[in-house]
Fold these 2 entries.
Entry 1:
Amino acid sequence: MPKKLFIKTYGCQMNAYDSQRMMDVMAPHGFEPADSAENADLVILNTCHIREKAAEKVYSDLGRIRDIKRERGPAGAEMMVAVAGCVAQAEGDEILRRAPVVNMVFGPQAYHRLPEMLARAQRFNARGGRERPVDTDFAASEKFDALPESQQAPGVAAFLSVQEGCDKFCTYCVVPYTRGAEYSRPVAPILAEARRLVARGVREITLLGQNVNAYHGDGGADGKTCSLGQLIWRLAEIDGLARIRYTTSYPGEMDDDLISAHAEVEPLMPYLHLPVQSGSDRILDVMNRRHTVEFYLRLVERIRRARPGMALSSDFIVGFPGETDDEFKETLQLVRQVGFASAFSFKFSARPGTPAATMDGQVPEALKSERLLALQALLDTQRRAFNSGCVGRTLPVLFEKPGRHAGQITGRSPYLQPVFAEGDTALIGRIVRTQIIDAGSNSLHGNLHLQAKAAE
Ligand code: SAH
Ligand code: SF4
Ligand code: F3S
């Protein structure tokens, strides 16, 4: 009988990609996906450490899993529980102390060793021993090389990790500690993985990296390394790959290659997530972001010159230690100047081990909430304006799956907006010119019929 594996994914797209790959690693060992922890033989929590809330959620979920195990009696005793991802990397065996239900802990660079770790954990478990494996070694290259080919149906839009880790050390951020030093995969295995995805029906690939535009993989011309812009050119040559995206970018790493790729590579979508974090030069400096407001504004100008109509998105942190009212207002000012199509914004969360956690001038929670509300109101207005600006336009939509209601299909516009329309599921996997007839705050409503009429 096949065994059931349930993976819960928290955090960013890198984790979503990693969860898929863990499924791939376990499939040859007789595991198939389960849709809940209730009947699973192995439960993996692929965790996120970026903010306190994300990390604490893991412990409340572990409490629920402990109850499920108990209720299942003897079958529950054999159910194995693993904590993977960034909380695992950051807390290591501390997790075993806080949550005795956990059988094994492993970091983001260790999941190719999962089968042997599981076998070890099962031996300990059967003997009723208290030993439990912990693997938080760093070596991203080894991990990528050791992955089996995926046997799962990838869908229409897929993620592909090209870079991992970060050397930037923004003073608030745990990623350099949980994901390790920057590492770029060589070009050849990336192209091979992309071709395999396209052969299995993928039309859109999003290149992933914590710092994706710092990509510099082996395999460029003349034995040189290849930049992200050059990699995008190579990917664009793959027949059948209609759309390319990448995330997340660091402003200081947007080089000329990449900006000109936006002007010249047709499949590269006119949407860019480019986190700025703050609109105050003083705060940016204490954040160690290594860019100024002026630099960011100029960069946006260059990008928009290269690709008119480019939609921008960003991340913001409010209530960074020492942030004054005026400095916060500078962030609002920057938002007004740029005009974002979408954005994520967060209250500063003090993360253990990062310099910002112990800086003077920690901002009270209530003030952080107030600033977050004000910023989100402004960003929301901009998102709605961007969405309503699409009404009446005809946009190419890549349809990805059936919609929530019968007879509906949903997909994405070039600007990553979800679009739903009445249409035949035969259109899934195709890019269809779609007349946008309505806009909500988070999605667009398209009409394929009108479009077909216009074409008659
Ligand atoms: N590599 C990306 C972002 C990674 S984390 C970049 O360079 O921008 C995603 C977002 O989480 C960040 O952009 C930041 O806005 C937010 N974030 C990171 N650490 C945080 C913290 N300690 N408190 C609040 N938000 C944080
Ligand atoms: Fe974190 Fe991004 Fe800064 Fe790296 S560049 S430290 S991932 S916020
Ligand atoms: Fe979270 Fe780790 Fe991603 S901390 S945001 S899962 S890199």
Note: The two ends are 55 Å apart (CA to CA).
Entry 2:
Amino acid sequence: MPIIILAIESSCDDTSASVIIDGQVCSNIIASQNIHQLYGGVVPELASRDHEKNIIPVVDLALKQANIKTEQLSAIAFTAGPGLIGSLLVGVTFAKGLALSHQIPLIEVNHLDAHIMAHLIDDPKPIFPFLCLLISGGHTQIVLVKEPLVFEKLGETSDDAAGEAFDKTAKLLGLEYPGGPLIDKYAKLGEVIYKFPIPSAPGFNFSFSGFKTSVLYFLQKETRLNPSFIEHNLNNICASIQHTIIEIVFQKSIAAIKQTGVKSIAIAGGVASNSGVRHKFTEYAKESGIDVFIPQFQYCTDNAAMIAITANYLYLKESFSDHSVVPFAKG
Ligand code: KG4
Ligand code: ZN
């Protein structure tokens, strides 16, 4: 009998559903919410309401695209956390209702584990043990992945996440939310001519708040002298901001590779879509002989396929959840 899993992801502002059959992704539907652009960040209440609207059509489409009926499912998986509690509740409640009405086992999945496990979707897959640099909008961590679902966190951010550093500095430039992809777009047209400090943090931990403040002071100083400074230098400012954020995560990654002696590093999370990050690590792979793994774009940002692949491994370990399971906001 094949293992057929329906997975639901609703931890932030993307409603996603995926069907996976014996580890092969058959659908991965993602409905993004544009409403948050008006507010410069995700508004939790509006996110929950949009999940409510989107969840039935998204799940329906995921099942149809995979040509699977609910009765055929081996398990229903969902993101239990960390994330926005109202958003998570929509996915958890929907998954529980569907599982209960069809007597299908439930599997809860940790969102951060899933970003890492996204590397086990496509071939070639990293060989264990490997390091994972998880750089998303909510988290920044370096994790030693010993085997599927066995992780050791080596370091994490003490303040903002890498994605937040992109989004918050983009906001200082007057760019829409989420600013990360826009900084990426303008950085491609600019040059790294402004220098921002690389904050120090102990061990394999990260810090971005000092960097963000230095960008703020720099922009305040320059716009006092020339009110059109940002407009006239946007590409170069974006290239310089992106360069600094990449250096922060790259330098720590190299230190962790050296200390652990692993031969592979995998990059996960929304910021792994950044073209500068991809280029920097790809070049490093060529000169160092260390294997670098970066998932397809659709598996970098929030998606249900990563929840499904994680659930597939949990299913093999018979790690099921009962209906008393509740979502959690912090990991
Ligand atoms: O993993 P993700 O989709 O959601 C979380 O779990 O947080 O990551 C979203 C983050 C946002 O901060 C967004 O600005 C950033 O990923 N991001 C990017 C790019 N695409 C998404 N940052 C820089 N360059 C990109 N191309
Ligand atoms: Zn995420």
Note: The first helix runs from residue 44 to 66.
